[in-house]
Structure formats: structure tokens, C-alpha cells
Amino acid sequence: MKQLHHKQSGSSYKKDEEIAISGMQPYSPKSVKHNRSFSRSLNYILREQRILFIIVGILIGATFFFFQPTFLSSSEPDPPVRKASHIPLLETNNLETEVESENTLEDRNDVDINNNDNIGIDQDTDNTDTSSVSGRIPVGIKRKRLRIVVTGGSGFVGSHLVDKLMARGDEVIVLDNFFTGRKENVVHHLGNPRFELIRHDVVQPILLEIDQIYHLACPASPVFYKYNPVKTIISFSIFSISTNVMGTLNMLGLAKRTGARLLLTSTSEVYGDPLQHPQKETYWGNVNPIGERSCYDEGKRVSETLAMDYHRGAGVEVRIARIFNTYGPRMCIDDGRVVSNFVAQAIRKLPMTVYGDGKQTRSFQYVADLVDGLVALMEGDHIGPFNLGNPGEFTMLELSEVVKEVIDPSATIEHKPNTADDPHKRKPDISKAKELLNWEPKIPLREGLPRMVSDFRNRILNEEEGKGN
Ligand SMILES: NC(=O)c1ccc[n+]([C@@H]2O[C@H](COP(=O)([O-])OP(=O)(O)OC[C@H]3O[C@@H](n4cnc5c(N)ncnc54)[C@H](O)[C@@H]3O)[C@@H](O)[C@H]2O)c1
């Protein structure tokens, strides 16, 4: 069979050779047709100056591309964020649901950068533009929507930060155990599909897919962290130690697993009772490691250490903010911090409590300024640590005078013995943040204080009417 096959194919070659020898061209329809259509197309283009029209068309297209509005608008400011007006805080009895909304993921990468569906309550934080966070994005091109976790997001600072992130169109997941935070602070976002509120203690691990983590969860006022010092340090402690250590570890673990960037909110308390004034980030501090405040101070110092070790050892992208005294609407009323104390006491017609001689100094930063600083730090290229605070320095007696001016000129003060390890002086050197983050606070105390007074009045009134807050 094999031989037969060879024979047959051999004879067919022979036939081809014979045809060629006889002078006939082998049939090749494809090449002939191709040549013809190419020359026909060429003729078509060359006829009636069509080539000229094509060139002119290309030139017009190129000109339009280079002079479109995106390029012309590069010197114009970003569209302003809508400023919502003050709306009275809502009642607690409307707030039964824990996780109120589900994420819709389909259009996650489709956020319109001009979208601003903030339905906020008090939006003093919104008087900032978004330029520092979104950068310049060509008209018509949509900025990638980020999914961001804010631990402690129903607290004072966290809730203002959440407002800003929601206003710029991101998805926000708040993790909070409501130890000092209040659902009322974020109630205006419930029902928004980009917002989730999860009751979660950061001492426990959690699995989420996210792009950024703002880690704020921590009892931040002496009244609360002294109440539960062990958890503060473990969550930083087992009931004040555990939040700072385990909480930060868990969030760093989450950042490592997901590749998310983590911003840690540390504190000026890492400087302790400072021997350097004003405090620069290079100063290592003067902290009493065994005092009543050390669950907080040392807890935050450990958090910074953990953040840097995860950065160096595991390549986690971290940012560290050292926050100085901050005030504004939604602060806990009776949290023992000096601004909230004075304001609440003056509204309740009680004497303002001044500890010691009242000559110790603090600097007070309005919360909207801090939120701008946090976002600038998260979006920037520098790890930190960065001092975020207002360098304006006031003694406690001077602060009480400002509160009198703003709330009640007849308000009085009463002196009490000073608390243990109370720092004598506190004032941030913010030159590093000015230079590298292009950030500095804009709202002075006399301008910021009246903005928190109406919020405090409403809540104190509700409290007195038995509605709670
Ligand atoms: N406000 C300031 O002046 C100031 C100054 C320095 C540093 N900071 C830091 O900024 C962050 C926010 O402070 P704030 O003033 O908004 O305090 P806050 O008490 O109002 O907010 C803290 C939030 O964290 C939550 N939280 C506490 N422990 C938690 C846990 N284990 N798990 C989950 N959630 C938990 C609380 O419920 C609350 O909502 C804190 O880390 C604080 O140390 C604030």
C-alpha cells in the first residue's frame, strides 16, 4: 500500500512539471485579485485630492486633542465640595440597625470625581476642597473609587473624616465598638450604598478587601482610657492596653494581606511632658512609663513601633500622624478633655474647672483642619511621623477667657489640684507637614469654637430633656 501511495503522488508531481514546461502559468487567483484591489484603492485615494482631505482631517483632530478643556483648565481650581448646612442631630431611637447598608460593587471603579452626595449633618469639615486628595484628573475621566476602612469612624475625628471621604465619592467601611463613639455621628450616611457601619472590636481580626485603612480606634480621652487602661494599650490594653497593641496589629495584618495603605493616628502624648519646646518629630519624648496616662502614651508609642516594623519587615505602606489637641462638633461632651469640659460647663452655667494654676499650655486645632491633614498624609508620599496640630498656644486661663467671650461673659472658673503627669507645655512644630504635605491649619480658635457651641447646646438640651445623646 505504501509503495502504491508513493507511486501515485510521484505521478501527480510529474504532471505539474509537464504543465510548467508546456509554458502555461499555474492558476493563482488570490495574488492577481490582491494586486488589482490594492492598485484600485491607491487610485481611489489619489484621485480628486482625497489624500489632501485625509491630511487636513488628521490635523484638525490633533489640534482638537491638544486644546481640549482638560488642558486649558489645569490652572483652574477644583470644583468646590458642597457645604451642607447645620441640621439638628437625630434621635438615638432611630438607630437600631447595626449594618445598615450593603456595598454595591458593580460600579466601584466608576466614581465621578464631581459627585458629592454627602447628606451630612454638620459639615464644618466640608469647607475644604478636594484638590489635595484627588489630584488633577482630566475632564470626563473618572477617578478610581477607593474602598476605605475607618476604624473608630463613629467617634469624633473619625466621623468628620468619613464625611470627607464620602463627599469625594469613595466607599467607606466604619469599624467601631461604640466604646466612645456614637451612631448619631454617622447616621446621615446610613442607607447610602457606599457606606457600611460594622460593630466590631479591633482587638479581634477581621477580613475585608480594601485599599486604605485609617486606624483611629482607641479610647482617646483620659476619662475613658483610665477607665479601662489594659484594654487601651492591648486594643491599645486587655481592656485599654489591647486596643493599641492588638488593634494596631490586626489592622497592620489586614494591610499586609490586602496591600492596603494604613494611616495610624498617633498622638502628641508620645512626647510626654516634653523637655523640648515646641515639639519636633525628631524629639523622642519624656514619657512616664508607669503612670496613669501611660496605657495611652505608651500604647501609641508601641503602635508607632509596630507600624514601622511592619513597614520595614513586611513592606506595608504606612503613614503616621501625631495629632495634637483637636476640638469641634461631635466631641464627647463629658470626656474630660479641656475644650469640651469648658464649653459644656459654660453652657450648663457651671464653673469651668481649671486644674493646677491654669498656666499649662496647649494648642487647639479645629477638626476640619486635622481631617485635611490626615487625607493629605494618606495620599502623599511620606511616611512620617508628622505633627498635625495648630501651633497657636494658649494657657488654660486664656482658653477659659475665649470660652467666656464666645458662650457666656459671666462664666466663672474654679481651680482643682492638677492631675498626675499633666504636661506643662504642648505646641507642635509643623514645619515638616508644611513642607512635605503642603498642609497647615487655617481655622483659629476664636473662629472654630463658635462652630462647636451650637452642636453642644443641642445635645446638652436633649440630655436635659431626657432624650439622651
Ligand atoms: N481628638 C484629639 O484631640 C486627639 C489627639 C491625639 C490623638 N487622637 C487620636 O485620634 C483618634 C480618634 O480620636 P477621637 O478624638 O475621635 O476619639 P473618640 O473617642 O471620639 O473616637 C475613638 C473611636 O474609636 C472607637 N473605639 C475605641 N476602641 C475601639 C475598639 N477596640 N474597637 C473598635 N472601635 C474602638 C470608639 O468607639 C470611638 O468611636 C484616636 O486614635 C486618638 O488617639 C485624637
TrEMBL record:
Per the UniProt record, which EC number(s) apply here?
4.1.1.35
Identify which cofactors the protein needs according to its UniProt entry.
NAD(+)
Q: Which residues form the NAD(P)-binding domain?
A: 150-452
Membrane topology according to the record: Single-pass type II membrane protein
The keyword Ligase appears for this protein: no
Q: Which Gene3D superfamilies does the record match to this protein?
A: NAD(P)-binding Rossmann-like Domain
Which terms are listed as keywords in the entry? Decarboxylase, Golgi apparatus, Lyase, Membrane, NAD, Transmembrane, Transmembrane helix
Q: How is this protein named in the record?
A: UDP-glucuronate decarboxylase
Q: Which residues cross the membrane?
A: 51-72
InterPro entries according to UniProt? NAD(P)-bd_dom, NAD(P)-bd_dom_sf, UXS-like
- Output compositional bias ranges, type Low complexity: 112-122
Q: Which Pfam family, giving just one, matches this sequence?
A: GDP_Man_Dehyd
**Per the similarity annotation, which family is this?**
Belongs to the NAD(P)-dependent epimerase/dehydratase family. UDP-glucuronic acid decarboxylase subfamily.
Q: Which GO terms describe its molecular function?
A: NAD+ binding; UDP-glucuronate decarboxylase activity
Q: What pathway does this protein act in?
A: Nucleotide-sugar biosynthesis; UDP-alpha-D-xylose biosynthesis; UDP-alpha-D-xylose from UDP-alpha-D-glucuronate: step 1/1
